[in-house]
Write a structure and sequence with these properties.
Layout (H helix, E strand, L loop, with lengths): L1 H4 E9 L4 E3 L1 H10 L10 E3 L7 H16 L2 E2 L6 E4 L3 H24 L1 H12 L11 H6 L2 E8 L12 H42 L8 H16 L5 H13 L5 H6 L1 H22 L2
Antiparallel strand pairs: 1-5, 1-6, 2-3, 4-5
């Protein structure tokens, strides 16, 4: 059962935008250009972009890792985290949270200097009231993950008529089945995308490519088995074939040896063709 092999994880990250709507500046621009005040809004940049860049990068890295290592579940931000990938996910997410928190500490430590610099850049638009105190600023940055079990029809305990209860249980089971199918399709799409880029790039003999063209395939086929919560045998077979035929390739050989490059394109395309047949069903 899925609820024994996976869980739902939600990543929650919030941060101070360092921007503020300036009503007076908006009104002046509207008056100067003779337009309605609703034609545009003037938002002040309270702190230089470079000052919060490390926080933004840490946020982006965490979100990217989260989405790569989980699968779609619902529209509320919940993602499927397979038990097989739990340790890897948890270990890396702890590191990413530490990076996020360090970036915040560094920012708070230089907050007064950033505010002074902003006063010079903003000139008459500078307003001290736009800048919260350091404690209030620190509270605007949050990073957390919430984990909950995947719902099971066996956990349904509401007292209803047997017919109604059975109907709801069946609907819940159907929902889980549908979510697993969507998650599995997501894995096919990932493999299709990375192999498609690989084949397209190598088919162009004049194209320049980085080592990551092969490295991305290696990383993905090592990750997909951990995310295969539906135990899809066809996907497992595609990963094994990809690993055997493409993952051992040396980027330099693909650049210098036309035969190796041509064979790699044919192998990648053959795998893509198989996948296309599976995804069409």
């Amino acid at each position: 059962m899925l609820n024994n092999d996976a869980m739902i994880v939600r990543l929650s990250i919030s941060q101070w935008t360092a921007r503020k709507f300036d009503k007076a500046a908006t009104a002046k621009v509207a008056a100067d250009y003779s337009v309605d005040s609703t034609a545009g809004r003037y938002n002040k940049v309270l702190i230089a972009k470079e000052a919060i860049q490390s926080i933004t990068q840490a946020t982006s890295a965490a979100r990217t890792f989260h989405y790569i290592n989980t699968l779609p579940w619902d529209d509320g931000g919940g993602r499927i985290l397979p038990a097989a990938n739990f340790l890897t996910y948890s270990k890396e997410m702890r590191k990413l949270k530490e990076q996020f928190e360090k970036a915040i500490r560094d920012f708070i430590g230089n907050y007064d200097a950033y505010r002074t610099e902003a006063s010079k850049k903003l000139g008459k638009m500078f307003n001290p009231a736009d800048y919260p105190g350091t404690q209030e600023i620190a509270a605007k940055f949050k990073f957390g993950t919430d984990i909950e079990p995947i719902p099971s029809s066996g956990d349904f305990r509401v007292t209803l008529q047997d017919s109604d209860a059975n109907k709801i249980k069946k609907e819940l089971e159907a929902r889980v089945t549908e979510r697993v199918a969507e998650a599995t399709r997501d894995l096919y799409v990932r493999l299709n995308d990375v192999l498609g880029k690989f084949a397209e790039k190598l088919a162009d003999k004049g194209a320049v490519f980085r080592d990551s063209l092969v490295e991305n395939i290696v990383d993905l086929v090592n990750l997909l088995p951990k995310l295969n919560v539906g135990n899809d045998a066809k996907l497992d077979s595609l990963c094994k074939e990809t690993k055997k035929k493409l993952c051992a390739l040396e980027p330099e050989s693909l650049r210098c040896e036309d035969g190796t490059r041509s064979t790699a394109v044919k192998d990648a395309q053959a795998i893509l063709n198989k996948m296309s047949a599976y995804m069409a069903k």
